[in-house]
From TrEMBL:
<comment type="similarity">
    <text>Belongs to the ROK (NagC/XylR) family.</text>
</comment>
<protein>
    <submittedName>
        <fullName>ROK family transcriptional regulator</fullName>
    </submittedName>
</protein>
<dbReference type="InterPro" id="IPR011991">
    <property type="entry name" value="ArsR-like_HTH"/>
</dbReference>
<feature type="domain" description="HTH marR-type">
    <location>
        <begin position="12"/>
        <end position="56"/>
    </location>
</feature>
<dbReference type="Pfam" id="PF01047">
    <property type="entry name" value="MarR"/>
</dbReference>
<dbReference type="InterPro" id="IPR000835">
    <property type="entry name" value="HTH_MarR-typ"/>
</dbReference>
<dbReference type="InterPro" id="IPR049874">
    <property type="entry name" value="ROK_cs"/>
</dbReference>
<dbReference type="InterPro" id="IPR000600">
    <property type="entry name" value="ROK"/>
</dbReference>
<dbReference type="GO" id="GO:0003700">
    <property type="term" value="F:DNA-binding transcription factor activity"/>
</dbReference>
<dbReference type="Pfam" id="PF00480">
    <property type="entry name" value="ROK"/>
</dbReference>
<dbReference type="InterPro" id="IPR036388">
    <property type="entry name" value="WH-like_DNA-bd_sf"/>
</dbReference>
<dbReference type="InterPro" id="IPR036390">
    <property type="entry name" value="WH_DNA-bd_sf"/>
</dbReference>
<dbReference type="InterPro" id="IPR043129">
    <property type="entry name" value="ATPase_NBD"/>
</dbReference>
């Protein structure tokens, strides 16, 4: 990404923050080389960013025979974002610093089908936003939803799992909180967090796969989350698997999610005679050594593995990152998943790494916060006017 020295300083500052945010600490010389800027410009702009508390001088880079260069890195306290994960029956909110550290988290009861659902959501956001650290600028609100979003900056949501159709989430919360608001599919939000803080720092083309209540995927291509023409890319859970399978909540028959999502696993456990009414009971039975319970997970793993192999064959990623509440039972999933996925991959793709990451209660909300925190590092400007407002708050302290 070349940045002309004659362009406005705001763009140069944003470019430097973007580079350090996505690849980590670098020396001034390396910054100048990667951005095709003069060393003098980099020195001047980074001095300003250090003065504003957004960058800090770290250790010295290893020497290759010359003078050792000091590296610069982002200061987490330069900004924070509030991330919100919307589920059918609850909200999870997290206050997250620019460097990814979680400052606090909250959970609120929620009924997505209630007539006043958006009022409750907006009120919860405004309440928690007022509780945060006033010494760290609040850059904006990120909201992750289990559905498709037409435009991050507009935030109109279509989510069958919540019973939402054309819900003006972004507009509603923006009006109440009086802050920039970005809304996105929750798995795409996790992919943004991976790009900023996780595997995405070393991979520019990768898949994020989530397992839990449902099944989701996000496609990162050349460092950017692929959203599709209408913001609906990645609805992997609705990949058709079995025409004679159960009816999915989307209205179709035999979707992958209907078979191996939480409801599908519980149904399969009952078919095997297990007294499991919730996924937690099935998980506990597998951990205690129940062969039928482990067989349910292994069978689901085989179906998931075949579907994932098809997706990998299509998009050719560098890696697949597996996330979600279901990873707690990955040992039982993997008994069926590993042989199925490897046997169905094209020969040239059978060495694609599949990496399962640890999962925490606030991970969904942390991913939603990354929608805002990644905005200064967004070369494509996908966040539109809301992204511009976020950048203004970070660089200029604009209210």
């Amino acid at each position: 990404m070349a940045v002309s020295g004659t362009e406005r300083g705001d763009l140069t500052r944003t470019a430097i923050l973007a580079l350090l945010g996505t690849v980590g600490p670098l020396s001034r010389t390396e910054i100048a080389r990667r951005l095709e800027l003069s060393p003098a410009s980099v020195t001047q702009v980074t001095r300003e960013l250090i003065g504003h508390g957004m960058l800090e001088e770290l250790d010295f880079a290893p020497s290759r025979g010359g003078r050792r260069a000091q590296r610069l890195g982002l200061v987490g306290s330069a900004g924070r974002a509030l991330g919100v994960k919307v589920a059918a029956d609850h909200l999870v909110l997290a206050d997250v610093r620019l460097d990814g550290a979680v400052l606090g988290s909250w959970e609120r009861k929620f009924d997505a089908t209630a007539a006043n659902a958006l009022d409750v959501l907006a009120e919860a956001v405004a309440e928690v936003a007022a509780e945060g650290d006033a010494g760290v600028p609040l850059l904006g609100i990120g909201i992750g939803v289990p559905g498709s979003v037409d435009d991050l900056a507009v935030g109109t949501v279509h989510a069958p799992a919540l019973g939402w159709r054309a819900m003006p989430v972004g507009e509603w919360v923006r009006r109440r909180a009086r802050l920039p608001v970005l809304v996105e599919n929750d798995v795409n939000a996790l992919a943004a967090a991976e790009r900023l803080y996780g595997r995405g720092r070393i991979h520019r083309d990768f898949l994020v796969l989530t397992i839990g209540w449902g099944i989701g995927a996000a496609i990162v291509s050349d460092g950017r989350v692929y959203r599709g023409a209408r913001g609906g890319a990645g609805e992997f859970g609705h990949f058709p698997v079995d025409p004679a399978g159960p009816v999915c909540h989307c209205g179709n028959t035999g979707c992958l999610e209907a078979l191996v999502g939480a409801a599908g696993l519980v149904a399969a456990s009952r078919a095997r005679g297990l007294p499991a009414d919730e996924i937690a009971e099935l998980s506990r039975a597998a951990a205690e050594g129940s062969a039928p319970a482990r067989a349910v997970f292994a069978e689901a793993g085989r179906a998931l593995g075949r579907a994932v192999a098809g997706l990998v064959n299509v998009v050719d990623p560098e890696a697949v990152v597996v996330l979600g509440e279901g990873t707690a039972d990955w040992e039982w999933w993997d008994a069926g998943f590993a042989p199925a996925v490897r046997s169905c991959l094209l020969p040239g793709l059978r060495d694609v790494p599949i990496e399962v990451e640890a999962w925490g209660d606030t991970s969904w909300a942390q991913g939603a916060a990354a929608l805002v925190l990644a905005t200064p590092f967004d070369e494509a400007g996908a966040a539109g006017e809301q992204g511009r407002l976020v950048r203004a708050r970070l660089i200029g302290g604009s209210p």
